[in-house]
From TrEMBL:
Belongs to the PrpD family. Residues 18-258 form the MmgE/PrpD N-terminal domain. The lineage of its organism: Bacteria, Pseudomonadati, Pseudomonadota, Alphaproteobacteria, Hyphomicrobiales. This is MmgE/PrpD family protein. It comes from the Bacteria. It comes from Hoeflea ulvae. Residues 278-443 form the MmgE/PrpD C-terminal domain. SUPFAM superfamilies: 2-methylcitrate dehydratase PrpD.
Amino acid sequence: MSSHTHIATNAEVPDVTRQLVDWIVDIKGSHISAEVRREGLRTFVNWVGCAVGGARHETVDRALAAVSPFSGKASSTVLGRPEQLDALHAALLNGITSHVLDFDDTHLKTIIHPAGPVASALLALAELRPMSGEDFLTALIVGIEVECRIGNAVYPNHYDRGWHITGTAGVFGAAAATGKAIGLSKQQMRWAFGLAATQSSGLREMFGTMTKSFHPGRAAQNGLTSALLAEANFDSSERAIEAPRGFANVTSTKQDYSEILDDLGTRWESALNSYKPYACGIVIHPTIDGCQQIRADIGDRVNAIKSVHLTTHPLVLELTGKKTPRTGLEGKFSVYHSAAAALLKGDGAPTAFTDEMVNQPEITALRDRISATADPECHEASVTIDVTFEDGSTLRKHIERALGSKDVPLTDDQVDDKFVTQSALVIGEDAARELLAISWNLENLSSVADVARVSAGRTTDQAKAG
C-alpha cells in the first residue's frame, strides 16, 4: 500500500475554477445590492487612508529606492507621495503602504486583509486605463469576494501551515478584479487564475519585518500581471484552484470547495469585513480596548500598577507573543507592548508602534511586569485583564468583543476620524479631508485616477500636463 497522502482526482471535485470564473465574468454592478456596495465603499475609503498613512514609512522609502530604477514609463501614483511608477510597480508599492502600519481592513473569518492586494492593483490599472468609479467599485467587490472565498476554502489549515493568507489568496482577488475591469473573457480569466495560482506566496515567518507588507504588494503586482498576461492570451492551467497539484491541494490539508461556490452572489464575504481602530494585529485589539478602558477608569493610578495578567486565546500568544520587541514593526506583534502602550499612553494608533515608543523606558518597564496565559476556552476575540496595584488592590476587566469587531463595528464617522488622523500626518489636514471627500464620492467619479492625483497633491490639469 502506498504511504502517500491521497489527493483527489479531477473527477472527484467540482469544476471550481470554471464555475467561479463564470460568475466573475457574468456578474454586473446592478446585481450587487446597495448594502454590499456601501460596505465595498467603506472598504475603499479605509484602504485609501491606510495607504496614505503608511506612505512615508521607512519600509516604503527602502522599497522605492530599490525598485524605482527598474520602473517602466511612469503612469501610476504611489498614494500620498509625488512619485509615479509603471502600473505594476505602483501596485506593489501601494500594497506595501496600505499594509505597513497593520491598520488595514480584516476579513474576520480568515484574517485576510482584503483591500490591499485588490485595491492596489485596481487603482494602478485605473491610472493607466481610464475607469469609472462605478466600474471600479464593482471590480473591487468582486475581487474581495473571490480572495475571501478562496481563503475560506483552505482556512485555517493553510494558515496554520505557515502561509500568510493575505498574500496567497490576495493574488486571486487582484487577478479577478483587474481581469474584470479590463473585460477578460471566461477563457482568459481561467488562464489568469492559473497564472495567479502559480505566483501565490507569502510566509508567516516574515511577521514583524518589512517583508510582511511586501506580501499584499506582491499579490497586487502579481495579480495584475496575471490579468495582463491572460489578456494577451498567455495560457495556463484552467483548474488552478482544485487540480490535484493546484493551489488548494498543494498549500492546505483542507479543501472545502463549497466555501467558494455556494451562494455566489447572495452570500457576500465583503459584508464580514471589518476596519481596525488599532494599528496592529487584530488579535491584540481586545487587549488594547480593555487597557484603554482601564486607563480611563483609574486615571493617575496607572502609575501604581504592580503587575498585569492577560488571559487570552492561544492564537494571540502564537501570533503576538513577542515579549521583548526591538522595533515598531515587532511591537505590532507584541501583546505585551500593546498593553503597556495602551495603559500608559492610551495609544493604539500608528504612534504606539514606532521604534522610539517600543524602546521607551517607562513602556519597557511596565511591559516586563505584564504576563499572559493561553486559555483554549477563551474566544479569540475576548480577553480578561487582571491588574494588581502596589497597595495590593486588584481590578479585573473582561472584553467580550473589541471595538472594530463585527459586533462593535466602526461607524462611518470613526472611519473618517481614522482616515484623517493618519493621513494628515503625511499630506496635511486640509488635503486629507479633500481626499476623504473624493474617496467617499467614488461611485460618482468619471475617472478613479482622480483619487490618486488628489492623494499626491496634484490637480487633474497638472496630471494631464505631466
